[in-house]
Amino acid sequence: MKETKSTCPYCGVGCGVIIESQGDQITGVRGDPDHPANFGRLCTKGSTLHLTATAEVTRQTRLLHPLLRDQAGMAPYRISWDSALGIATDRFARTIAEHGPDAVGFYISGQLLTEDYYVFNKLAKGLIGTNNVDTNSRLCMSSAVAGYKMTLGADAPPNCYDDVNHADCIFIVGSNTAWAHPILFRRIEDAKRARPDMKIIFCDPRRTDTAEIADLYLPLQPGTDVMLFHGLLHIMLWEGWVKPDYITAHTNGFDALKARVRECTPELVAQTCGLKREDLFTAAKWFATSASTLSLYCQGLNQSSSGTAKNAALINLHLATAQIGKPGAGPFSLTGQPNAMGGREVGGLANLLSAHRDLANPAHRAEVAALWGVPSVPEKPGKTAVEMFQAAADGEIKALWIACTNPAQSMPDQSTVRRALERAEFVVVQEAFLTTATCDYADLLLPATTWGEKTGTVTNSERRISRVRPAVAAPGGTRHDWVIAVEFARGLEARLRPGAPTLFPYDTADATAGAEAVWNEHRESTRGRDLDITGLSYPVLEQAPQQWPLPAGASTGKARLYEDGVFPTADGKARFADVAYQPLAEPRESRYPFSLTTGRLRDHWHGMSRTGTLGRLFGHVPEPTVQMHPQDMDRRKLAEGDLVHVTSKRGSIVLPVQASDEIGLSQAFIAMHWGGEYLSGCSSTGARLAGVNAITTSAYCPTSKQPELKHAAVKILKAELPWTVLGIAWLPAGEFLRSQEELRRMMAVFPYASCVPFSNNVPLQDATKQERSGILFRAASHEAPPEEILQRLENALGLAGSDTLRYADKRRGQRRSMRLVRAGEKEARLDAFLLAGDTSAEAWIKALLQDQLPAQAYGRQLLAPGAKAPVALPARGKQVCSCFNVGAYAIEKQLSTSEGTEDQRLASLQSSLKCGTNCGSCVPELKRLVRAMFPLQKVA
To answer: What is this structure's pTM?
Structure first.
C-alpha cells in the first residue's frame, strides 16, 4: 500500500487528501489531517473519490487513446499521438494562415492545474497571437474578479478560512455553502457551536440547507441584491453606523455612493426585495455594529447580468463600516472550482494577462511580451465564453480547442452552443472522460490525465496554493494537459516561427521536472505584483500549502490582506462603487410568470462526468426534477411527480415536478447538473431537448461578461404524456457503459426521458456488503411506441434472455418484463425489470430490486398490471445520509423515541444510526428533521 498526499479536484475549498494505492490502482482516499483547508475532513464527493477511479470505471468511462472522427455522425477511431498532434497542428496552422489568429479559440477549465493554464495562455497569446482563450471560470468567478478590481484594486480575496472563528457576524449571501462548500460549512458549524452569540445572516431566494444555521434568513426576490445592499447602507447612514474616519483615510468616492443610496429607503427596499422592514434593520445593525463581520458569497451574486454591481455593492458595505483588514472581517468570495483562482493568477481569461495584469494596459502587455520573449502580445480583446461560442455559431471562429470542460452541458443557451460545435470546421476536445456530451461533437479527441495521475499546483478560495501529486501512473495513452499543449505548441511553432527558439522549453519526458519549470516561469511573472510568490517553490510547497503573497525572503504567506488600510490602487485607497440597481435581464411577465434559478446538488459536481459514475451518489436526489412551491402546484392542479413543460424564450424541457417549501411563490428550481446526458427528449418538431441549459439565458454582465445562469423567466405547464415506462437493472461488471450509451440514444425517441445510475446504497464503511450499480431509465410519451423500441429497451436492460418473465397487452400498450436470479436453493431476487404503459407498481417493485429482497413469494404479482405488493415492504423514505444509507423513515422512527433537548436528540440520532458522523454533509438536513418534530428549541 502506498500513500500520496494530494488535493481534492472538486470545489474551491481545496481540501487535502491522502490517496491510497496499490500498483496502478487507487484503492482509497481520506482527508489529510495536516492540510489547513480541511484538517482531515471530506464531504460526500471527496470521500468517494477513490470509487470514481476504479479499474472498472476507468475502463468504461475514460478516454484512453487519441480518437479521430472523419465526418459528423461517424464513430471516432483510434490513431497514434503523432498523427493526432500532426492533424491538430495542420488544421490550426491552415486556419490561422487563411483567416488570421482570431479565427481560433481555446476554451479551458478551472479544473486544470495552474501549470496547464499557464501553457495554454502562453500558447494562445504568445505563440498564436490571439486573446481568444477563456475558461469555464467565466461562468462562475468573473464577476467576483471584476468586483474586487473595481473596489479594492486587485483580484485578491482578502480573507482566510480561519476568519470564521473570529467573526462576530457572518453574512452569507447567494451561496448554498452547506452544499457548495461543505467543509467550510463544517467550520462555520464548529464556530457557531463554540460561540453561540455569533450572528449568522443568510440571504437567498431559496431556503436551502444553509439557512438551518442562520439567526436571520432574508428570502429576497431573485436579482434584487444591489437594492438590498444599497438599502442596508442607507440604514447604516441614517443610524450613524458607518465609520467616517476609515472612509476618509482609506477610501474614495463615498459622496457619490451616498447620494445614490439616499433613495433606497427601507420601504422601497422591502417592497422591491420582498423582505420585512424590521429584518432590514436587524441585518444592517448586526453587519455594521458587530466587532467583525465576514461576508461569504458565491454564484448567487456572480451569475447575474448585474454580477459586478452585486459584488461591488456588497464590498461597499465593508468599506463603509471598516469591516475589512482584520480577523473575522471582510468580503470573501468563495471560488467555485478547484483552481479557478490559479487560472486567474496566470491570466487565463480573455481580458487578463499573467499575474493579474490587464490586457488593456500597454505596459502590462509589454512586460509579458518581454517575459515570454515575443515581440508583442495582441491588444485586441479576446472572446469571452459566451462570445466565443456565438462567434463559432456565426462562423467567425473556425477552430475550437476545448480542454477539461463540457460546454455542451454547462454553457447557457444550449441551442447556440451546439450550433457552434456543429458549425466549427475543426473541434478538438482534450478530456479525461469519453462520456461527456461535448465529446460527441469532437473531430479530434485527446486523452488527458486526471485526479490521482497529475502533478502540479492549485489555488483555493483563501489564496492557498497546494500541490497536486500523482498516486498512480497515467493509464493507457493519456498525457498531462500541459504536456499535450506543449507538444501541440512545438508543432505549431515550426509552422508559425520556423527556425526561432522554442517558447516552450519544458521537459515533457519528466512530468515533475517539466511542471516545475512551468511553475518557476509563472512564479517569475509575479515578481513585484500583488500576488508575488517569488518566495515559493516546489520544495517549499512539499513542506506545506502556502497562501499568497509570499515574496522572496518571506517565510510564510499572508493570511489577511489590507490590514494596514493600503490598497493596490494608484493612491493606495479603496474605491466605493457607485453602481445602479438594474432589474433582471429577463424579468417575470405574464407569458413567463416563474423565476427559474439553478444551483448545486449536495452529492454531485458540475456535469457529473466523475460523480455520475457512482450510483450511490444519486441516493440523495435520485432523478432530475423541477421544484415549485406547493401553493403554485395547487393552483395549477399539479401533483407530486406530474410531468411538466418548463419553457423559456430559448426552448423547453420536460421533467417531473416536486413540491418544495424551500422555493418562494412564483419561483422554480432545477439543479445545474442535469444535462442532456441525464435528462433529454424530443419535441414534436423532432428537435432534441437537452438538459436545464436548453432554457437558461446567455445574457451577461456587461463588465464581467458572466452569464445570468441563476435566472430565467419560464412558464410551467402540465405535460399530457399518459404513456410511461420505467426500467431498472443491475448491470454485470463491464456492461454499464454499453447499456448507458444505448439508453441515452433512445432518450431522443421520447418527449421526456431520464437516464441515471442506480445503486443499492451500501454504507460506505461496510466492507461486508457488495456495492451494486445499475441504471434507471424513465420516459413518457403521448402513446405507446413501436414494439421495436420496447425490445431495444429490454436489450439494453439485459431483459432479452430466456430467464426473463414477460407480460404484454398490445391493445392497452402495456408490457412487463422481469428477470429473477437465483440467490440460493429456495430464493430468487429481482435483477432487472421493465414496466411499460402502467408504472403504478413502481414503488414496491423498485424497492424489491434495490434492497435485494427475496422475490419468489411475489409470483404473478410481478406481472399483473396495477398489482399491489402482497407483503408489506419496509419503508425507507428519502435517503438523507449517503455514507451510511440512512433514510428519513429510520430517522423519524429513532427521533420518536428520543428525549432531551434538540441538541441531545441530534446526538442520539448520530450515535444510534451513525448518520452525520462521517462526512457531515447531511447534518443540516438532520437538524431540519429534528426541528420539524421538536420545533420549540433551535439546534445549535
So the answer is: 0.96
